Amino acid sequence: METRSAAVSGADIEAARLLLDRLGVSPEQVMRGAGPRRPMPTFDEYIGRVSHVVTDATRSVYETYWAKVRQVWGARRLDEPTPLEIHELAEWAKRQSVTRRNSRGGRASAEHVIAALRCLYRYAVMDGLIAEADSPAARVAKPRRLPSTRRAISATHLAQINAVAASTGNDPELDRLLLRLHTETACRRAGALGLRLCDIDSEQCLVRLREKGETVRWQPISPTLTRYLLLHNEERGTGDPSGQLLRYGNGKPITARRYDYLWQRLGKHLPWVAIQQISTHWLRHTTLTWVERNFGYAVARAYAGHSGKNDAGTTSTYVRADLYEVAAALAALTGEPHPLAVDSR
Fold first, then answer.
1. I need a labelling partner for 27 at 20 to 30 A (CA). Which of 4, 39, 175, 300 fits?
2. Within this chain, do residues 77 and 213 fall inside the same structural domain, yes or no?
């Protein structure tokens, strides 16, 4: 009588895997004698659930890329795609990306597709739908980021930008206020768009900024900018202290489109603005570069609102600057006294 070989063929293993998948049971559960797994949701089902629990900022970044995933894989289960398929999806998104003024070949689209899937799979791991080691998105490397082309704008060019903004367009008063706000605070667009009347401390000349990563900080502003912001609210506000501060002349809140219009207009009058693809974020580089050169790295880091461990080395823990030093740097930048300024140099 022939005896069957103890060796198990690859076909046997694959057959067992398929059977377990059909039964909804994992090999670990077989070993533990556990019950069946929870049904594996599709991408359509799970993206809808995750999008309701993430922060508004996360949703605004990832919803476009989750829509791409649903377009291609909507009916597939979360545990079906392989790392290779995710890489192929990222490359497809890269090819499909819209060519913009500051486009860099679609690399950002590929990066965001992978990041959006990693976010999705993190929740799947927390829900116990898949093991952390089985997340296919975690095994796909993001495209390497190219060095930024942004840099500080010279004083002469900055003066030209402000002059054109104040003398052209359908609302030069608004654009002049926007440029001054970003130049003084080095805030991001989200910080300006999220500004409310209740975020202004007129006595101490401070604004409360809510920005990237749900960070909240008080940032010094000049007495002149404080007056301009309060006057802007008197003329265009709705009376709601928690409503958006920056508004058009008709009282409608501005959106990111105002920035697009502003820089497109500036590019028509100042060709170098269009050629170099200058944007609002260049103002942040300009201010922080000036602060670092004149007041040191610690003050520049505080001025920027950087506080996480990823923003600097361990040394920054011991050389942290405070609000009063930031106010002193602002006073030197604007040439106006600030109520919180101290000379720390």
1. 4
2. no
